[in-house]
Specification:
2 domains; 5-stranded mixed sheet; 17% helix
Length: 547
């Protein structure tokens, strides 16, 4: 239970807005506690009470307050009056706009069953009267928004039994920001959808997750369509912290699909909240609002600005972009914005996790940025064909019920395909443009970019001018600590070695990354995604301190 003293001065004015958070110090007189001793204190930070501590399936902020001690998301602040309160005195708390409808206050009172939160106004009982003052419970029901900055002001007023004013005090708090988690943050749990089509993938994934020290969260149910296996797109999982404790928070998806609600319901629990911004925008926003199209970088410095918690980025498709309410919400947190827009209009699905990912590095800069490279893929395939003619792409790949090798394609035919080779040049130009945007917006040096071999193909008449990955997109993997679970490329063999997979190992293993291949051809690759698209992760940010 968090208990903070408001100092016995005429007014407690705690100030200084820093990057959307509030840093506090006593500005109106000496800092002292009830005993008169000198006292400083940590910032007064509210974590929005969006979790479900009592297991009733509802966020705690939407229900009656729990018993004192049962909900550590209610900030307890001791308000010390300037003089002893008389018997029968009352206390009121008014929360100033714009938070009046998005925050609540209570008074902690004695009862036969122990301390409890009571609604306000309240008569101050004998146990609460006197020089020790009263304990006010403060609770936020949401995060900051474009029209609601994080600073919360609560005015505490004392009155005599006859209504005569006895004094006022002001409590200033800040609402903790919602912070997106980077893939470099340690994973606590990996979530995946189990259907008939993903059963083998889940079975193969389980020991890899266990070896990384994380749990495996399996989502399944009759209400989930067989084809909706895109866990990454259903929710975006982040955190909120007061510097001492952390709440995991899921940003509810806006896809209009059952999986989104199922996942959100599963995650909601003690110290795990759910928040939703925006809503389903229909087919005109097809795929663009899915959360594979929303990611965050590791901590970076760009153009003289430090993004201590990383910077978030999202893809645009022509005139369409990620839901503006979601973007506005994230930027209003004041910690990871502004959004860095990437052109993904040349991709069929158009998600940023198709174009960039991150791995840690023990050499130099503590991370590397991975981007796909058709140019490198063509170069590797040409070398392979010269060394060992007769190799194939998608080696042994098949869908359930198909013959082994149904999707194999001779490397020689691929290299002779003029239309396909021309597509690689075009797509490479698109990727180079995305790379430049990323490097400029995130301050990433050329030496910190790792190219990963991926071939792309035209979608033809279905999505004119758009492309999908012909080979498995190895940028779209799952990072667990220093283990990178890479989609098995099923590339051509030279001396028994998969040349596409080996190219990734050659680039990542010297950085301290262990590269582990995992087959995801069916149903993920054939459905337009890979391992990252099919999984999600609850990650605990490496640093807990608010800005």
């Amino acid at each position: 239970m968090r208990d903070r003293d408001v100092l016995s001065v005429p007014s407690v004015l705690l100030a200084a807005c820093i990057a959307g958070m509030i840093a506090y110090s006593a500005c109106a007189g000496p800092a002292s506690g009830p005993d008169g001793a000198s006292r400083g204190g940590p910032p007064l930070v509210l974590i929005p009470n969006l979790d479900d501590d009592n297991g009733d399936g509802l966020p705690d902020a939407s229900a009656a307050p729990l018993a004192a001690g049962a909900d550590d998301d209610v900030l307890q602040v001791r308000v010390v009056p300037d003089k002893k309160l008389p018997r029968g005195a009352t206390v009121r708390v008014e929360i100033a706009e714009p938070w009046a409808s998005f925050a609540r206050a209570f008074v902690l009172t004695a009862s036969p069953d122990g301390p409890r939160f009571a609604p306000l106004p309240a008569v101050i009982g004998p146990a609460e009267a006197g020089r020790k003052g009263v304990v006010i419970g403060l609770e936020a029901a949401d995060f900051a928004s474009p029209d609601r900055p994080p600073a919360v002001e609560a005015r505490v007023a004392f009155s005599a039994a006859d209504g005569r004013p006895l004094g006022e005090k002001t409590i200033l708090c800040s609402v903790a920001p919602f912070l997106l988690s980077s893939c470099l943050d340690p994973a606590e749990e990996v979530q995946v959808v189990r259907t008939k089509g993903t059963e083998q993938f889940v079975k193969n994934l389980a020991p890899l997750v266990e070896a990384a020290g994380a749990g495996l969260g399996i989502v399944e149910g009759a209400s989930i369509p067989e084809h909706d296996v895109w866990m990454q797109d259903a929710v975006e999982i982040g955190t909120a912290t007061d510097g001492e404790r952390v709440m995991r928070v899921a940003l509810h998806g806006n896809r209009g699909r059952e999986l989104d609600a199922v996942v959100a319901k599963r995650l909601l629990g003690r110290d795990f909240g759910v928040v939703r911004k925006g809503g389903f925008r229909g087919r005109e926003a097809q795929w663009i609002d899915w959360y594979g199209n929303l990611e965050v970088s590791p901590p970076v410095t760009a153009n003289g600005r430090a993004f201590e918690h990383g910077r978030f980025y999202a893809g645009t498709q022509a005139e369409r972009a990620m839901h503006p309410e979601v973007v506005a919400f994230l930027e209003a947190q004041g910690a990871q914005g502004p959004v860095l827009w990437l052109d993904t209009s040349w991709l069929v699905i158009g998600h940023v996790d198709e174009t960039v990912s991150w791995v840690p590095s023990k050499v130099g800069t503590p991370f590397r940025m991975m981007v796909p490279s058709p140019r490198l893929a063509v170069e590797i395939l040409r070398r392979a064909e010269r060394s060992a003619p007769g190799g194939v792409l998608n080696r042994g790949a098949r869908l359930e019920g198909d013959r082994p090798g149904e999707f194999e394609r001779p490397v020689a035919d691929v290299l002779k395909d003029g239309e396909l080779m021309a597509a690689q040049e075009l797509v490479q130009g698109k990727i180079d443009a995305v790379r430049r945007t990323l490097q400029e917006g995130l301050g990433v040096a050329d030496a910190d970019v790792v190219e990963i071999p991926v071939l792309f193909s035209s979608s033809g008449r279905w999505f004119p001018g758009r492309y999908f990955s012909e080979t498995v997109n190895m940028v779209n993997g799952l990072l667990l600590g220093t283990t990178y679970i890479v989609p098995d490329p099923r590339g051509p063999l030279v001396d028994g070695v998969d040349v596409l997979l080996q190219a990734v190992k050659d680039r990542l293993e010297p950085l301290g990354c262990r590269v582990v291949p995992l087959d995801c051809f069916d149903p993920y690759h054939r459905g337009g995604g890979e391992i990252h698209c099919g999984t999600n992760a609850t990650r605990l940010r490496a640093e807990k301190q608010p800005l």
